[in-house]
Design brief:
2 domains; alpha/beta; 467 residues; 40% helix; seven-stranded mixed sheet; Aldehyde Dehydrogenase, Chain A, domain 2
């Protein structure tokens, strides 16, 4: 660990001095390398998981697409938030020359996810966004796919070296104790995690308890509530039932955006349609430990008084229902994430009951509203904005597009911060602002020099100036 950290520390200065075009070249080189060995990568993870070759092949493409997106982001340059305020001796009080920009925070620890062995793993979004802005990365491999992690890490390291990245830019560690040591090592300046609330909270507390605490960006779990209004249920309840069934069973329910609680009106068409559907009778979970966790969570859920099975069985996918009164009485058990193919339909009678139920929800990555075009949904929308980082007004939350506008985060317990782990602005996690006062041009970062040699968008004396 100390040897790896020494190399990461040594690489930090060179990475900080590197240009966006250099780093973009490194990211694209990694993407090209991974694309070239897609079959080999899929073969490895197919041996270690039950995710299926089609899903895994698509996930490699998503991973390399993320790398190329971040290359575009840093070339465009607005991520730096460059601001120039020229000196004004006539201001009261007189104003010095002030220039502000975002700079890399330093070496980053990345903890990989179980359910996305590529896109949220060794070469996933956390790694890509940290490397993009000039931070060395040390990745903690997930025990659910160690062979895949090692293969991917080797490919990433070789591609970076061949593209000219400094020694120490990237490394992989493995094992429980390595994960504990990593977040506490004094060289590490920030950490990113995707996984369980229990594991994430433990690492978060370690990061906060250090002599010099560091930011910990954890994505921990989410219920992803769905609200179906009475009008929407009456108009298209059967269609919504089909969409819900496809969403909560997708990937055997092993998505952080799985709809875990669905609010439907009493006498719901959706509920009746769902009861007639055949859900998968068997389940193949990602790992044995995830399967054991799902079984425990399902036992806890099925023990709630007043809860009835709507469709499926405990051996496969399962939809259950209970009244809004029972939901309120057993709120904590209902809102504890069960990672796997199960969803809870909560029956409400009228907008007042629905409003009261929404007030009891915890933070989530997503919240979805199905309503009709002529309905007044302002109040419900405001309630969902308070609890979720992404609010959907059609479709289903399983599926996170990697774009400039995406936000994948939300209030606790969904995440430990208000930043995103997906999309262009994910880079903001690994940057810190620095203001330079009356600095000589020669020592300023290129983004702040008077002539704007990078040709990036900047705010100058309060005015946004585009290149």
């Amino acid at each position: 660990m100390d040897e790896i950290m020494l190399r990461a520390a040594s690489a930090t200065a060179e990475l900080t001095r590197s240009s966006a075009h250099q780093r973009a070249g490194w990211l694209r080189a990694v993407a090209d390398t991974l694309d070239a060995i897609t079959t080999q990568l899929v073969d490895a993870v197919d041996e270690e998981t039950h995710l299926g070759r089609s899903r895994l092949t698509g996930e490699v493409a998503r991973t390399t697409g993320q790398l190329r997106l971040f290359a575009d982001v840093i070339i465009e340059g607005s991520y730096l938030e460059a601001i120039v305020d020229h000196a004004d001796p006539h201001a009261q009080p007189p104003r010095p020359d002030l220039r502000r920009v975002l700079r890399p925070i330093g070496p980053v620890a990345v903890y990989t996810a179980s359910n996305f062995p590529f896109a949220f793993s060794v070469a996933g979004g956390d790694t890509a966004s940290a490397l993009a802005v000039g931070c060395p990365v040390v990745v903690k491999a997930h025990p659910g796919h160690p062979k895949t992690s090692a293969l991917t890490a080797s490919a990433v390291a070789d591609a970076l070296a061949a593209a000219g990245a400094p020694d120490g830019t990237f490394a992989l560690v493995d094992g429980y104790q390595a994960g504990v040591d990593l977040v506490q090592h004094p060289v590490i300046a920030a950490a990113a995690f995707t996984g369980s609330a229990t594991g994430g909270r433990a690492l978060h507390d370690l990061a906060a308890a250090r002599p010099a605490p560091i930011p910990f960006y954890g994505e921990l779990g989410s219920i992803n509530p769905v609200i179906v209004t009475e009008a929407a249920d009456a108009a298209r309840g059967e269609e919504l039932a089909d969409g819900l069934a496809g969403s909560f069973t997708l990937g055997t329910g092993q998505f952080c955006t799985k709809p875990g609680v669905v609010f439907v009106p009493e006498g719901s068409q959706l509920l009746r349609r769902l009861a007639d559907r055949e859900l998968p009778a068997e389940r193949a979970m990602l790992t044995d430990s995830i399967g054991d966790g799902f079984a425990r969570g399902l036992d806890r859920l099925l023990g709630i008084p007043g809860l009835d099975i709507v469709a499926g069985s405990p051996a496969g996918a399962l939809a259950v229902t209970l009244s809004v009164e029972h939901f309120a009485e057993h709120r904590e058990r209902v809102l504890t994430e069960v990672f796997g193919p199960v969803t809870v339909l909560v029956r409400y009678a009228g907008r007042e009951q629905l409003r009261d139920a929404l007030d009891q929800l915890d933070g989530s990555l997503t919240a979805t509203l199905h309503a009709e075009a002529d309905e007044d949904i302002e109040e419900v929308t405001a309630a969902l904005e308070r609890i979720a980082g992404r609010v959907l007004f059609s479709g289903w939350p399983t599926g996170v597009a990697v774009t400039w506008a995406q936000h994948h985060g939300g209030p606790w317990p969904a995440t430990t911060s208000q930043f995103t782990s997906v999309g262009a602005t994910a880079v903001r996690r690994f940057l810190r602002p620095i203001a330079y006062q009356d600095a000589p041009q020669a020592v300023l970062p290129a983004a702040l020099r008077e002539e704007n040699p990078l040709g990036i968008p900047r705010r100058v004396d309060g005015v946004l100036v585009l290149p």
